Amino acid sequence: MTESPISNFREPPDPANIMTFDETPVLETRGLSVMYDSKPALRDVSFQVPRNEVIAIIGPSGSGKSTLLRCFNRMNDLIQNVSITGEVFFEEEPLYAPEVDPTEIRFRIGMVFQRPNPFPKSVYDNVAFGPRINGIGGDLDQLVEDSLRRAALWDEVYDRLDDSALQLSGGQQQRLCIARALAVDPEVILMDEPAASLDPISTQAIEVLIRELTRNVTIVIVTHNMQQAQRVANYAAVLMTDESRVGELIEYGPTEQIFGTPKDRRTEAYVTGRIG
Length: 276
Prior knowledge:
The chain is α/β, with parallel strands linked by helices.
């Protein structure tokens, strides 16, 4: 039997290849491991997310990228038979402490999914949804407008606020979902392949928006698109599966270093397309 190319690159992660930061990170994992139905998905991931940057999580399919992302806003809580060990911190506080309300966390750490998922409501009501249920006071009309402007969508929908969000194009729907997340003033937005289902023009608009948002928001993005990771991310984290098909963090550093002079030979093999 011919050996799979990836089997030539199986080796334990080197902790020296994992970047840490002097300033307090907005998010951090320490020894994070995740199992689904007793099947390991992530093992011993220690990882820091600096404030107001874009961090890309890259790696082959099945390496645990989306699993790691969902740990940051407790979306894995919604999956049956999941087991999470280790520690996750948000603003230096333990994210999985018993007193932490997962619903509140999901407003402070918003999420944008691979496929746009606007509510079957008007454009206005999509953006106003979070502020309403959170009892956010003030001028709701202005908040909706500000959120749509921040998502670079206002000029396209200002005269369509009462129309169904489902009537918007795919790219507009995705920016609406970003506006909906922004409306509750999150500290972090998680993005899971946010442009995977979009055309090149819409993808470019999302990428420009990502860069602009980091003035106020930290963004963690999962992407299979290596060019996109290089265009939008300040730092890149590489996940790889071991011989048991369990995801491990093998390298984390500035994007230009990850793609230009990677420290781990598996990273070099992945970013050059030899494995993946």
